[in-house]
Amino acid sequence: MIRVEELCVGYGERAVLSGLNFQVGPGEFVGLLGPNGSGKSTLVNTLAGLLPPRGGRLLMGGRPLESLSSRRRAQLRAVVLQSSEVRFPFTCLEIVLMGRYPHRKRLESLADDDLLRALKSMRRTTTDHLQQRLITEVSGGERQRVMVARALAQDPRLLLLDEATSCLDVRKKLEIFELLNLLNQTQGLTVLCAMHDLNLAALYCGRLMFLKDGAILRDGPTEEVFTPAVLAQVFDTPMEVSRHPAHQRPYAVLLPLPMEIQEAEETLEAAHI
Amino acid sequence: MKDYSISTPDSLDLMAVSSQRRAGRRRFAAALLVLGLGLAISLALATGIGRMDIGWKTVDAVILGKLGFSVPALDHTTEVVIWDIRLSRVVLAGLVGASLAAAGVVFQGLLLNPLADPFTLGVSTGAAFGVALLVMLGVGGSYLGLSPLPLGALVGALATMAAVVVLSRESGRIRKESLILAGIVVSTFLAALISLVKSLDEESLSAIVFWIMGSFSGRGWIHVGFLVPYVAAGLALAACHHRELDLLALGEEQSEHLGVAVSKVRLRLLLGASLLTAGAVAVSGVIGFVGLVVPHLVRVLAGPSHGRLLVLSALSGALILIWGDVLARILLPGGQELPVGVVTALLGGPFFFYLLKSRRARGMW
To answer: How far is CA A20 from each of CA A10, A16, A40, A272, B36, rounded to the nearest angstrom?
Structure first.
């Protein structure tokens, strides 16, 4: 699905990602983890085609990404970002129908099939009741679910998420991931999600990629790489990893930071005198 | 989300949604009908109003006669006044109104800026500069009944637009922020040049000022003929991309995610809107507020969907400018005319303020 070789990306003078190599096969469910500024969002933006790579190769569906038209890209992949402001008062159904744009011909009117797909994805994300509500007037969580619905209406083979569920409550978060998991299992939807919630990632992702300072630190099956050693190295934070008795998935518990913050604060106080 | 099974079409209420959409289409058709009828009636009424008192029957007779129906013979002067002077002017006002309103819809959607109008990016200043240059150089006369001024305005407008686009390109992309900035830079510079022309050549002052104020006075079928290709091409370009306009309204990032080739589409839409604006400015001068207020007004009534917005705005713009021109013709006693640009600004300003106030309450823009 995705094949990345020696990928380098940057803004202006600053290189953000350098020398990335990885592949994501069809039907994988990959979590992208790493501290702030590690390049997660940059990677998602690059994979989405919004940021042209500076070097290396980026293949999607077997073809170089830059050789695909915007339309073709949108048929292959859909993207959900952390928050998507909409300033015009479209109804939520109209927003979801926009997901059908890459599949429609220019002057063709809306087919029943398009409408049906839009309605299905609204049902899947429990946003049915929002159909005629204005996107400018729904809550942040509702809007985010409408955005997921729009991405699903796009009928993509790859779904890229960048902190897509961060602003949702626990229940909604789980619902979205259950749904993604189901689509991944039943329809082979490939999912790549950049996220901060370690335990959510460990719960649903079959594979984890840890990014730090623009490079991949570890990449492998969740069982193997979700370890205290790796987590401590990536996040500079001591953590304990256990296996939950009910679902047998690993989960991490934060441990208090060693004395460094306190020590730094004391030095600072001393400096005042 | 307890039930993950993919529901059958029935349970998804495809019927209900379809019928809602049908109702929406019916409302749109009704609005279309009302505006269309209004336009037809306005065309006749506006042609009947003028300094020379002519009855409606005569107006009908002249128009029908020209359209090939057999009617009793008419006085030649009356015929000329109605057909060549008044009707051509009313038609021109309608076309210019439609162009400006449609261009306003495109510019507002493209720049995501409620204050954008057809002249934001300097098209009007470019046109005015073209005219100022011709006036200063003393190019006058008339070719086939058309003075060279419209041509100068058109070239000025299109060249300005091209300059703005070139200046705002950053590594092959057209960003809306840089478009607005480049527009301001270019039009400020051109405005300075116009002032220079005015100060160097005092004789041209009144001609330039008069042209900039915008008027349909003395325009005829030749101007209609001049404008029609630009209106047709501009409207076609805009209409072909109405769906992209909807998506662009979500912002650059989201529209690219959804498959819009943002820079390419922006360029085409800019071209369309510039053709509309340049054509309108070339034949009538600068007529403000129509392209700013009409899209806002229609958006309040018809929602943000650009396909409908374009059609309804074009019709409303035509209607409004036809009556604006009637006011310009009859407002002053003694047969003197006001520049129609002054009328639209006088009426449009306060109305726009009212619209903004009432819209803020509704949480739109």
So the answer is: 13, 11, 12, 45, 60
